[in-house]
Amino acid sequence: MFKSILAAGLFALGLSGSAVAAAPLPDVAKGLPIPAGKGYVVKEIADHIYFVTEGAYTTMFVTTGNGVIIVDAPPSIGQNLLKAVAEVTAEPIKYVIYSHAHADHIGAAGLYPKGVTIIAHAATKALLAADPARPGPYGVMVGGGPVPLPTVTFTDKYRLTVGSQTLELAYRGDDHEPGNIYIYAPKQKVLMKVDIVFPGWAPFMGLAVSEDVRGYLKAQDVILSYDFMALVSGHFGRPATRQDVETQKAYLQDIVANATTALKTVDFNAIAAKTGYENLALLFDTYLKAVGQKCTDLTVPKWVDKLGGVDIWTPSHCDRVVESLRID
Length: 328
Known about the structure:
Blueprint: H1 2-8, E1 11-12, E2 19-20, E3 41-46, E4 49-53, E5 58-63, E6 68-71, H2 80-88, E7 93-97, H3 103-106, E8 117-121, H4 122-128, E9 152-154, E10 157-162, E11 165-170, E12 182-185, E13 190-192, H5 205-209, H6 213-224, E14 230-232, H7 242-265, H8 268-275, H9 280-303, H10 310-327
Parallel strand pairs: 6-7, 7-8, 8-9, 13-14
Antiparallel strand pairs: 1-2, 3-4, 4-5, 5-6, 10-11, 11-12, 12-13
Helix pairs in contact: 6-7, 7-9, 7-10, 8-9, 9-10
């Protein structure tokens, strides 16, 4: 069954003559259509709250009657963020919120007007401060660059009321990255939480490259503890629904269960009998690949037609969860 699904999704790269197998995408993985020649779409998803995407990254802004509050600045959207705001309001941008410190979400923040108030978690400011140990320049992806440091920070909760609108910012523990916050509009029941949920898709590789596996898994329940009608998740072309979160949570629960089964059933000693103990790198690499493959084989057939990217990213999710279960 799975092999036939992959065969149906086979496509040629053309340039090199090689081929890459990919499962067909389910309808749930499709984002909002991007107008040809425009490069982005802006959509009001609740009263005075606007969603912006270029197809891969997503963010939001709020009109208040006394200036715009905008969250993040993905370099892939770039100047189109300013166009999106100007498309729906003449209000100036007065407040910027950083969801967290990763450059692929805020690396274009230098385009915002000088003197705006920038709000973020204290850990985000610390991560953005000059770091002589950083191995390369910050924000090198698709035109990003150095960003202004936050001017207002908090550690637990922060309530921002501007004009007629209120956003409640909260830190609920480490997950994707220290400082990754929840941004909630209680009146409209819109929540923004970045790099946890990927609506219609399996999460990005390696549980979205999250630094804390257990925190990442727990964040599914924290999101569901909010009363929201739309979730702006930072990625993949459309707002998420509550059902999207429930579906991803079920997928991740299967990953944990299948990783546990793999750890219990793949025989380390049997593999060692084949590889020997002299080359320990070979032994552990062979063993962990076998465990990850077992988890993948148990997971993919159930989910490949329910979420996009399952055939591509499930192995990396299994590897991350296996390591967390093995050593945490």
